[in-house]
Amino acid sequence: MSEQKMPDADQVLSMMTARMGEALPEWPAKLKELAPDLLVATAMTSAQSVGREASPVPAKYRHLIAVAAALGRGQASCARSQAHMARQAGASCEEVLDAVRIARHLAAAGVLDAASSLLADLDE
C-alpha cells in the first residue's frame, strides 16, 4: 500500500477554490498566508468528515447535514459553501431549504430548552 502525500497549503486552497468557487469563505486564503499548517490540518479534518468518500452517507446528505450544523453555529460562510457543495452533489434548492428549516427549528428548540428552568419557575 503506498502512502498518500499530504497536500501543501497552495494545493489545499486550489482544491477548495475548485470545489466551492465563489462560495469559498475568505478565511482559507488568509489562513494560507498566516498559518499554512493550520489550513492543511483543517482540510484533513474535512476530508475525514464531510468530505469522507468512504462514508456510507451520500455526499449530498453529508453536505446538507453540514449546512444545518453550520447555521446552528452561526457560521454563515460555512453554511453557504456547504450548500454550494450540496447542490454540486445533487441536492435540490428545496432540500437545502429544508436543511435551513431544520436548523431554524433546532435553534428555536434550543432556546426553549435553555428556558426550561425559567418556565418551571413561572409555574410556581
Main sheet: strands, sense, barrel: none
**Could you state the CATH homologous superfamily of the largest domain?**
AhpD-like
Q: In which range does the helix fraction lie? A: over 70%
Q: What percent of residues are in strands?
A: under 5%
Specify the structural class.
Answer: mainly alpha
Uncertain segments: none
**Total of domains:** 2
Describe the fold and architecture.
It is a single chain. This protein has 124 residues and is mainly alpha-helical. The protein has two domains: 7-48, no CATH class; 59-124, AhpD-like, CATH 1.20.1290. Helix content is 71%, strand content 0%. The protein is built from seven helices and no strands. It is elongated and about 65 Å long. The protein starts with 8 loop residues before the first helix and ends with a helix. The model has no long low-confidence stretch (mean pLDDT 93).
In short:
This protein is mainly α and 124 residues long.
Give the helix/strand layout:
Layout: H1 9-20, H2 27-34, H3 36-47, H4 59-72, H5 76-88, H6 93-114, H7 116-122
Helix pairs in contact: 1-3, 2-3, 4-5, 4-6
Any descriptors?
71% helix; AhpD-like; 2 domains; 7 helices; mainly alpha; 124 residues
